[in-house]
Design brief:
The structure holds two protein chains of two kinds. Chain A is mainly β. Chain A is 0% helix and 54% strand. Chain A has no helices and eleven strands. In chain A, the strands form two sheets. In chain A, strands 2, 4, 5, 9, 10 and 11 form a six-stranded mixed β-sheet that branches. A five-stranded antiparallel β-sheet of chain A has the order 1-3-8-7-6, with no helix packed on it. In chain A, a hairpin with a 6-residue loop joins β4 and β5. The mean pLDDT of chain A is 93. By secondary structure, chain B is mainly β. In chain B, 35% of the residues are buried. Helix content of chain B is 0%, strand content 49%. Chain B is globular and about 40 Å long. Classes of the chains: A mainly beta, B mainly beta. Chains A and B meet through β4, β5 and β10 of A and β4, β5 and β10 of B.
């Protein structure tokens, strides 16, 4: 079992719809969770971080964390073609260091 | 504020040659991380510097990889001798403090070993 799992996609949604991206993790002690957006050939860009159970909203983005079920999700409201990218889930596990464990990423396509 | 920069953006070398990748973190960031993405796989951690000290090098694949951060500013990652399986994108990231807050990534160096 991978430590962080994501569906590779592509996930296609029409413009204006809600895109829902999911991530599960195996280490029950994990404390910190991040969503990065990566355009092709570019660097991963931090868009959301979440540390507590529940929802965290920032503009059109909402991160949701459920530690009991070991999943974290990212909702993108009013999806735009410019949101088309790969979304990476990253987790810091409680190993005493601060290295990220990444999922493989989900490719999102927003159709105009 | 300048972001994390990496050089070169792309390197093509033959098996057995040596390559040195460079990363300049965001100014003032003591923490510097190296990651690698092999095609089709997830981004994987290589090592973590705090200033000039190696905090965690558990992800370094073998002794053909040598990372340095003299003076606690920029870092280099040398691969010697390069093998075919070393091909991939090498990312550098930095953060101001070693914490559970976000890391800022550079654009990566695409290494192709032929």
């Amino acid at each position: 079992q991978k430590e962080v799992e994501q569906n590779s996609g592509p996930l296609s949604v029409p413009e204006g719809a809600i895109a829902s991206l999911n991530c599960t993790y195996s280490d029950r002690g994990s404390q910190s969770f991040f969503w990065y957006r990566q355009y092709s050939g570019k660097s991963p860009e931090l868009i959301m971080s979440i540390y507590s159970n529940g929802d965290k909203e920032d503009g059109r983005f909402t991160a949701q964390l459920n530690k009991a079920s070991q999943y974290v999700s990212l909702l993108i409201r009013d999806s735009q073609p410019s949101d088309s990218a790969t979304y990476l889930c990253a987790v810091i596990i409680t190993s005493g260091t601060y290295k990220y464990i990444f999922g493989t990423g989900t490719r999102l396509k927003v159709l105009a | 504020e300048a972001g994390v920069t990496q050089f070169p953006s792309h390197s093509v070398i033959e098996k057995g040659q040596t390559v040195t990748l460079r990363c300049d973190p965001i100014s003032g960031h003591d923490n510097l991380y190296w990651y690698r993405r092999v095609m089709g796989k997830e981004i994987k951690f290589l090592l973590h510097f705090v200033k000039e000290s190696k905090q965690d090098e558990s992800g370094m694949p073998n002794n053909r990889f040598l990372a340095e951060r003299t003076g606690g500013t920029y870092s280099t990652l040398k691969v010697q001798p390069a093998e075919l399986e070393d091909s991939g994108v090498y990312f550098c990231a930095s953060s101001q403090i070693a914490s559970v807050r976000g890391q800022y990534f550079g654009p990566g160096t695409r290494l192709t070993v032929t």
